[in-house]
Structures are given as C-alpha cells and as structure tokens.
Amino acid sequence: MWDVGLAQMFKERENKINIGPCVGKIVGVKPLKVSILDGQVILQEGHLYICQSLAKREYKLELNADGDIGDIAITSKPSNPLISFNISEKEKTKLTLYFELKQGDEVLIIPAENQQVFFIVDKIQKSS
What we know:
Elements (H helix, E strand, L loop, with lengths): L1 H12 L8 E7 L4 E4 L4 E4 L3 E3 L1 H4 E5 L10 E4 L8 E4 L7 E5 L7 E6 L6 E7 L4
Parallel strand pairs: 4-10
Antiparallel strand pairs: 1-2, 1-9, 2-3, 5-8, 6-7, 9-10
C-alpha cells in the first residue's frame, strides 16, 4: 500500500486553488448570504465585510439661490409622497444616502489572503 500513501502525499503537496475577485449574488438579506462560484459556496454574514461606502455615503450639501439658502423638494414615484426639507444652516447641512442590498443583486467580492473572510466592495451589473 506504499503507492496509495505516496499518491496521497503528492495530492496534499499540490497547490490549493485560490479564489480571486469574483461576482457574488445576494441570496439572503437578513441574515446576509452571498453565493459565489455558481452557487458552489454560500458565504454567511460572519465571513463578510461590507465597504462603508456601499452601506452609507455622506455628502456636504449646499444650496445656493442668489446667495441665499432655501428649500429642496424631491418628487418620486406617484405612489411615494413629495419629500421636502429646508436648509437653514449651510455649515451643518449634510446629505446622507443609505443603500440596501436586495436578494438577486450582484456584488463584487474580494477574498482576504487566507480566504476565510470576504469583502463586498460594491454592487455591480453586467454591461449591455
């Protein structure tokens, strides 16, 4: 049986395949689950890090109308109400955008060197 032992030693010595940057698909939101490698691997929340800019982005916002500050109104779909807010202090005004991952979204996944944790960098879409 020395030949089986020798073959096993060669197999153990083979370089393991490293996962590089890849496309992941959101398959669960609460808790977060991401499928990679055509569904062969499901990454759980404990193995995932999300880039802060994907979750929340803040911008300093300044609205000028002939040197004055004023109102901003945002109209969205007919089913959603009109959103309006007043800017009264330029220095304290900021706009915060929150993003959400939805089931079916595709994301760019980059593994850490040890391939035990993975970083969700951004939502992506295939170009048309």
